[in-house]
Amino acid sequence: MALLEVENLSVEYNTKSGCVLALRNVSFSLDEGEVLGIVGESGSGKSTLALALSGLLERSAVIKAHRMTFCGVDLLGNIESVRGTGVFMVFQDPFSSLNPLMKIRQQLFEAIKVRCDRAKLSFNEDEARKEAIELLKEVRITDPEDVLERYPHQLSGGQTQRVMIAMALAEKPKLLIADEPTTALDVITQAQVLSVFKNVVNRRHMSMIFITHDLAVASQICDRIMVLYGGMVQEMGSTSEVLKDPKHPYTLGLIGSIPNKSKEEGELSSIKGYYTTTGIRGCLFSPRCPFVREGCTKGVPRLNAVDGRLVRCINYGEQYE
Amino acid sequence: MSVPKLFKNPASALGLAIVVLFYAWSILEGTLQVLGYALNDPRLGWILLPYNPFETSIQNTLLPPSFSHLMGTDDLGRDIFSRVLYAAPIDALVSVCVVAGAVLIGGALGLTAGFFGGYADEANMRVTDLFLAFPALILALTIEYTFGRGAFYATLAMLIVWWPTYARLFRAEALRIKKMKFVDAALLSGLSRLEIIAKHFVRPSLNTVLSYFTIDLGNVILFYSVLSFLGLGQQPPYPEWGAMVASGLNYFPKWWWYSLCPGIVITIVVIGAALLGDALRDYIAGET
């Protein structure tokens, strides 16, 4: 059975200036030990999806789904019952993800204590200390004893993200959601933190949803990739296939915008136009699509199954929703 | 900025000195007064004072300030300096009770309102608005006229007037902290909402409140002096700064010291608290 099953998830923000549809009928499932990458540009609904899955959406959000289950538990009704054991998140901004007034030790101990309380086990400071040091070693912090006694502002961004991963491990969740965890880091730290993620997920056989706007980053760690545009799934398939043979024009554009190593390869290509989802008839990507044709504006294309992949483009079957 | 460096600024040092002196004296003198009552020997209350603050003397009425009577004497011949010193503890106690009580009530309501948002927030803030809509003095006067006079009722009245400001302050802090991701992380780890408020909201919000708290001690003393000026503080013959200013006004300006000296003492304490609060605010602002 799949760990996480989502069927037709829609999220709407009710603001004073009207409704904004952030996610439209997103369906997917995630198996145990699988890493799913969610790729898209700002505003495509990546973060909303993460927040919806973890139950952290703000009050103005209306969430609808045919089904959203985690280990057989319905997430729509009782998300509280999977707190701690279920989903943990690593956030984009490393500098607000730890309480600035508490030492790392206190925060890690708290996470361990919460887990012990839940399992009705007694909490022992010495054991917690040993465990905290083990966890920090697992995320490749070189001087764990020292880091335990530091405050968050004394850590670098990369260290903070590793501590966050350690916090996540302390909770022993089944699913880790990483919301752009490497975006705020420099390239070298980014690679190191990515390898920590990879390592941890492999060793613990954890599932992970990895959110990023960077296809290159996603390709290094994800088993499958979901491409979001305008809150809709545009393409979904295994990482290697999507990268080797992108079918949706948007995916093609994303791959084209990855900067190349050498300057000689010519101008950096980008997707023309700007991201917008309002006032568009038919395919949301059509105003920016290089292959746009008459049929594109007839209606929103259906998500077609092509070679074991899902693609929302009329080039692979002219069917509409 | 380090703490010692902060008090190199003469104004800050002066504020600290005044506040520390005022509260240290109040604790000492207050303890002696309480002890005096407990042991049924009120003389303990003025063992450190130059004169008995209750002793009247017909020969010594309205003497100007001199070395034997630093602030002169009043219309009944009592030593004003002794009376001012004897009245200090009640002002100190009232100021701490009111501000600490307001921080507790306002903190509990403000933090929960800010954190939970929605209807809880709305209800909370409208009640706060209701209290803030009345002029504070008139509200306090009404409460005291309804329930009774004296320091206890004055404290109660001021508490009712004071907490809404703190509720606002704490709510703003809660809204700021709520945006931090560690709150989301705590939610995900399964901590209950009340635990999160206790663990992650109380301590960070105190930073800002601390300087406001200090300035407010002075404000409460001023407000309490106004109440006692209007005859709503401790009742005579118990000395009270505001009341002394009020009765001295009958003898102003010829016997100016009677009302001016207690007035100056009130001013000094209030300014001291303001200076210290300012210094603390600079310190906190420089720190974050």
Plain-language structure description:
- The complex is a heterodimer of chains A (321) and B (288).
- Chain A is an alpha/beta fold and 321 residues long.
- Chain A has helices at 46-54, 104-118, 125-138, 144-148, 157-171, 187-204, 215-221, 239-244, 249-256; strands spanning 4-15, 18-30, 35-39, 61-64, 67-70, 73-74, 87-90, 175-179, 207-212, 224-229, 232-238, 304-306, 309-311.
- In chain A, 30% of the residues lie in helices and 23% in strands.
- In chain A, strand 5 and strand 6 (73-74) form a beta hairpin.
- The longest helix of chain A is centred in the middle third of the chain and has 18 residues, at 187-204.
- Chain A is globular, with a radius of gyration of 21 Å.
- In chain A, 44% of the residues are buried.
- The mean pLDDT of chain A is 88.
- Chain B has a single domain (3-34, 73-287), classed as MetI-like (MetI-like fold), CATH 1.10.3720.
- In chain B, helix 2 packs across helix 10 (257-287), helix 3 (80-116) packs parallel to helix 6 (151-178) and helix 3 runs antiparallel to helix 8 (193-229).
- The N and C termini of chain B lie close together (10 Å).
- The A-B interface holds A 54-56, 59, 83-85, 87-89, 91, 93, 96-101, 107, 110-111, 114, 118, 164, 167, 171 and B 117-118, 179-182, 184-185, 187-191, 199-200, 203-204.
Compute the number of structural domains of chain B: 1
Helix amount of chain B: over 70%
Give the second-level CATH assignment, the architecture of chain B.
Orthogonal Bundle
Helix/strand-derived class of chain B?
mainly alpha
* Sheet having the most strands of chain A: 8 strands, mixed
Number of strands of chain B: 0
Quote the beta fraction of chain A: 15-25%
Looking at the chains present, what oligomeric state does this protein adopt?
Answer: heterodimer
CATH superfamily (homologous) name of chain B = MetI-like
Radius of gyration of chain A: 21 Å
Give helix % range of chain A.
Answer: 25-40%
In the predicted model, the low-confidence regions of chain A spanning at least 5 consecutive residues are none
Determine the structural class of chain A based on helices, strands and strand pairing.
Answer: alpha/beta
Strand order of the largest sheet of chain A: 7-8-9-3-10-11-13-12
Distance between the termini of chain B: 10 Å
Beta content of chain B comes to under 5%
Largest sheet of chain B: none
Contiguous runs where pLDDT drops below 50 for at least 5 residues of chain B: none
Individual helix count of chain A: 9
